[in-house]
Amino acid sequence: MQIPFIPKDAPFNEDQRSWLSGFLAGLHSRLAMPVGQGQAVAPQAGAQASLPVNILYGTQTGNAEGLANDAAEVARGLGLSSVVQGLDDIDLDAFAAMVNVVIVVSTYGEGEMPDNAQLFWDALSADTAPRLESMTFCVLALGDTGYDDFCQAGKLIDMRLEQLGAQRIADRIDCDIDFEDPAANWLNDSLGKVSASSSSGAGVATTVAPASKPKSDKPGWSRKNPYRAELQVNRRLSGEGSSKEIRHYEFALGDSGVEYQAGDALGVMPVNDPVLISGLLERLGGKADADVKGLDGSVGEALTSKFEISTPSRDLVAEIERRAGDEELTHVVHHGDKEALDAWLWGKDVLDLVQLLPEGQLPDLETFISLLKPLQHRAYSISSSPLVAGDSVHLTVASVRYSGNGRVHGGVCSTYLADRVGDDDRPGIFVSPNKAFRVPEDTDRPVIMVGPGTGIAPFRAFLQERQATGAKGRNWLFFGDQHKAHDFIYEDELAAMVDQGVLSRMDLAFSRDQDQKIYVQHRMKENGKDLFAWLEDGGYFYVCGDALRMAKDVDQALHEVITEHGGKSPDEAEDYVATLKREKRYLRDVY
């Protein structure tokens, strides 16, 4: 390495600054020093030093971050040092200096990068991205086979790293919603290969047996081991005249040891509607107490709590099309038009599809169950702060109900909570931490929250948190729904927070109370001058709710506000928003 001569007391010139920046970036990577939110994990005692494993994650709900931390534990057990970082915590120069890289990334929405991976992907996919011949890598992708672009984010990053010359040390794995076991096996295998490569290439000690995680007195509640909680409160929030049914729930945590923070989500394990189960068994000619090969328990038990019988799987749709002889379904399936197929499936559950089959084409129970996906938990944004709620956790949930094909349909979990949890029932729950969606650590910072409908849930928690901690920063809420008279949920609480000075500003948008529909993004633009001033004062901008329409409209409005009131070009506004994201001041909890 050629080190430029720098005279004593002389100011750096641009070439010297450039060299020093590159040197420090490389030094950071090789010494495993954490940057920003990065967490360095030391190797197990007795292991010789080697190049660190950089474990990077892109996450929307926290699953990928959890697996990244699991990877660090595996690396430690193999005698490897590691650095865990979000993809939004590194720049491309630092990334290019890394040697051993493990990337864990989820896919969000319709094949999109999660929020904290988008800026990284923009830089990596650009023509200016550096060559990466000195890097070895592997990618763990998380997704849902219910979507066409399954694990698309992981596939794109994996392919792009290869294009830039990085060497794949282990094949990518694409994990479905039951990701825990395959992901754990892959991490052990892949990091074992990294360890073996480091040992042979750097002359370090051979690998050691993986160390077990330290035991904790706290129970490990999870999707596979949920806590059975008492549902203490089930209260309708929306008025009787509303077209919606929004409910407030409170679960007792007792002595469970369950802990959460404002911004986290609560996973609820649903139970399928017995009316839907009966309809399926009647149509298929089966009995609830029947035994089927491969099932642990009866068919009725399996359809109650083990399999998804609301949203049809892709495999089931394909098999129904093959058997049904339905001209419309065959057309949309074979035409390859995803939007047309989604439109055809809209509002249809598994029973709707089974009813398309003529008598001679009905599958037997074993075949039918093999075409179903496992029943998954439903995740809801927590609407309470533990500083206020004490030993309970609150949810704000819209009950899904609609009619179609001659019968009433209901949301799997929302109607389970609303209608079918009895006094003696104990729904299974667990916390999904979302460390990327938190109130600012600096309590003096202003906070802007955009959360129409049930999107208000985490902001109720945020406001409780800010009030309980005595935060001095201003709070501004944009809220809306259809009608103020029926849909202004938590109105009394919010009014009290305004009176108490906790809620500095509240702008409301009730779309159906006037001839022209007004939404939260319109209120943002109407108050754009003040909104931009809050951002310039170091404000945080949060969005929660519908990802497909609302969040995109709010994002567009934010760009327009910055352009108009910041005196910026569209490109400059884009850079401004990118800076907000890098500084973690533009955060979203969207679904």
If you had to describe this structure to a student in words, what would you say it looks like?
- The protein is α/β, with parallel strands linked by helices.
- The chain folds into 4 domains: 14-202, Rossmann fold (3-Layer(aba) Sandwich), CATH 3.40.50.360; 227-270 and 377-432, Translation factors (Elongation Factor Tu (Ef-tu), domain 3, Beta Barrel); 274-370, NADPH-cytochrome p450 Reductase, Chain A, domain 3; 447-590, Rossmann fold, CATH 3.40.50.
- The chain is built from 22 helices and 21 strands.
- Strands 1, 2, 3, 4, 5, 6 and 7 form a 7-stranded mixed sheet that branches.
- Helix 2 (63-77) crosses helix 6 (180-202) and helix 20 crosses helix 21 (550-565).
- The radius of gyration is 26 Å and the shape is globular.
- Residues 1-37, 44-49 and 202-216 have low confidence and may be disordered.
Q: Top keywords for this entry?
A:
NADPH-cytochrome p450 Reductase, Chain A, domain 3; globular; 7-stranded mixed beta sheet; 4 domains; single chain; Rossmann fold; 591 residues; 22 helices; alpha/beta; Elongation Factor Tu (Ef-tu), domain 3
Instruction: Report the count of strand segments.
Output: 21
**CATH architecture name of the largest domain:** 3-Layer(aba) Sandwich
- Helix tally equals 22
| Helix proportion range | 25-40%
Overall 3D geometry? globular
Number of domains: 4
Give me the CATH fold name of the largest domain: Rossmann fold
Largest sheet: 7 strands, mixed
CA-based gyration radius: 26 Å
Strand content: 15-25%
Low-confidence stretches: 1-37, 44-49, 202-216
> How would you state the average pLDDT, rounded?
90
The N- and C-terminal alpha carbons lie at a distance of: 49 Å
Helix and strand composition category: alpha/beta
Tell me the name of the CATH homologous superfamily of the largest domain: Flavodoxin domain
